[in-house]
């Protein structure tokens, strides 16, 4: 956690991954993020993975450091309160994140009529307003058809990591701050629409894969071979598996030196009339000769021995760890200043990450647990909307607002 965005106030009404992660990133940089939920929780409140008591690890992970207001969004009065919070006055307010539909009570037309300089960042599925999730976007991009070994033929492989959700969340946070900068310069508000599908296809195009397909056809499957470079998994003498890469000339030179294969590599270069010294693409083209050579050399060495020499010679490599090993790895978690062990709202205590960025000139604050639903309802209604205790009490009594 950092305090760079304080005293910015962001109101979030969202569910699932992309939009909540945008709010999370803003909160971790110091914004006051107020999450507005349906009383009892929204559609992702009990989403897997879960704790033994049925609390969602997923939900509390994406909502760390946010304040919570619980409203009856099925009622006209509850929807009115959400709209009022989204458009509340103040130079550092009037910033709203949502993945609610384009039309309805949270439409740009209705909200901007209340506050013309509102910044409304809306995460969507499709640009036309149609629904989409990370996995339906991924299936439509052709990624499952190039994931996995060639022996799968045309059988798709769905990914485990929701990459498009996470990219969309990061882009939504960036676009929100860009719109805020524009408002500060011009006084103008605007709606920013970020469709998940557009993030997916734009990313593929930015990586050159769209042009590759148009000019050469669909990419083949290469299994664990890294496309266009030297990279693959190799097994050591003590049975461990390492991911070994050689993108830069230094990484390639170091790898050849550590494995003691310079003479054999020179022989391949001479016989094929190529040089592997500077061109990663050439290494990929001739992986049929290079991979067996590296595989045999790695198989003669223990992983710890190789790790020391790889590090000393500027090589790029990484171990294969099961997730239960990764969470106990000092470099990844247990000695990483990114993490602090805190008790979350589920009652479970475990390492929790703060802001991903490291700012050497700023104090890194410990992450803050997710809030209980409605934990800050009374505080926010008083501070943001200026409601008195009598009115707040009436809303609680009527069931429009709930506390923790």
Describe what is shown at a glance.
The chain is 41% helix and 15% strand. The chain is an alpha/beta fold and 404 residues long. The radius of gyration is 26 Å and the shape is elongated.
Molecular structure report:
The protein is an alpha/beta fold and 404 residues long. It is 41% helix and 15% strand. The protein has 17 helices and twelve strands. The strands form three sheets. It has a seven-stranded mixed β-sheet with strand order 6-5-4-1-2-3-12, with helices on both faces. Strands 7-8-9 form a three-stranded antiparallel β-sheet. Strands 10-11 form a two-stranded antiparallel sheet. The two termini are 24 Å apart.
Summarize the helices and strands and which ones pair or pack.
Layout: E1 9-13, H1 18-28, E2 32-38, H2 57-62, E3 67-71, H3 76-86, E4 95-98, H4 108-114, E5 119-124, H5 134-141, H6 163-186, E6 190-195, H7 196-206, H8 209-216, E7 230-235, E8 241-246, H9 249-259, H10 262-272, H11 280-285, H12 287-298, H13 303-312, E9 316-319, H14 323-326, H15 330-334, E10 339-343, E11 349-353, H16 377-385, H17 389-398, E12 401-402
Parallel strand pairs: 1-2, 1-4, 2-3, 4-5, 5-6
Antiparallel strand pairs: 3-12, 7-8, 8-9, 10-11
Helix pairs in contact: 1-6, 5-7, 6-7
What is the total tally of β strands?
12
Return the CATH architecture of the largest domain: 3-Layer(aba) Sandwich
> How much beta, percentage-wise?
15-25%
SSE pattern: EHEHEHEHEHHEHHEEHHHHHEHHEEHHE
Largest sheet at a glance?
7 strands, mixed
What would CATH call the class of the largest domain?
Answer: Alpha Beta
| CATH superfamily caption of the largest domain | Crotonobetainyl-coa:carnitine coa-transferase, domain 1
- How many domains? 2
